[in-house]
Amino acid sequence: MYEHGNPVVNNMPYAYRPLVADWVADHLYAGQAPNIRSAGQVAVSS
């Protein structure tokens, strides 16, 4: 829970989007998702 978040926290996307992205990746990769944040890599779209 976030102190200043509304009931669905959609007023704080910077707080929940990385968590949702990790959850989705973990489920898509069946628990074997690469952890790009700890490796110092950044996803770049071209």
Tell me what the structure shows.
By secondary structure, the chain is mostly helical. It has one domain. 35% of the residues lie in helices and 0% in strands. The longest helix is centred in the middle third of the chain and has 16 residues, at 13-28. The N and C termini lie far apart (35 Å). The model has no long low-confidence stretch (mean pLDDT 75).
Question: What attributes characterize this protein structure?
Answer:
46 residues; mainly alpha; 1 helix; 0% strand
What's the arrangement of secondary structure elements?
Elements (H helix, E strand, L loop, with lengths): L12 H16 L18
What's the short version?
This protein has one helix at about 15-30. By secondary structure, the chain is mostly helical.
How many β-strand runs? 0
Tally of separate domains: 1
- Work out the radius of gyration: 13 Å
Strand content: under 5%
Task: Please report the number of helical segments.
Answer: 1
Uncertain stretches: none
> How much helix, percentage-wise, in residues?
25-40%
- Report the oligomer: single chain
**From N to C, what is the helix and strand string?**
H
Largest sheet: none
Question: Termini distance?
Answer: 35 Å
Structural class: mainly alpha
Mean of pLDDT:
75
What is the general shape? elongated
